[in-house]
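Hi, here's the filled form for the chain we discussed.

Project: internal
Contact: R.S.
Residues: 117
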Amino acid sequence: QVQLVESGGGLVQSGGSLRLSCAASGTIFTFNVMGWYRQAPGKQRELVAGITSGGSMNYADSVKGRFTISRDKNMTYLQMNNLKPEDTAVYYCNLQNVNHRGTLAYWGQGTQVTVSS
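And the returned structure, exactly as it came back:
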């Protein structure tokens, strides 16, 4: 089992910045992917950014150039700059354990990010 604990959400004005943190504990495979997803009211959960245990990163087009994902061992961070009202959502930390048998995914409890215009 894996436990994920997020922190760092809050209320910020448009153009502002926030930094989300996620701490993973438990059984974490050598190859894994940590990422951030978000879900706005009435919308599907979507990938924001991901980073592998090897350091490869990917971003949603809507956040490229504004958000930066990083990790330090079993911690992952999402630096969010130039926030826009459309970034308002619950942000979820995700970890995927990957081995030859497949992938196991785990989720944090979510943290609210609200951007006011």
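Let me know if anything looks off before we file it.
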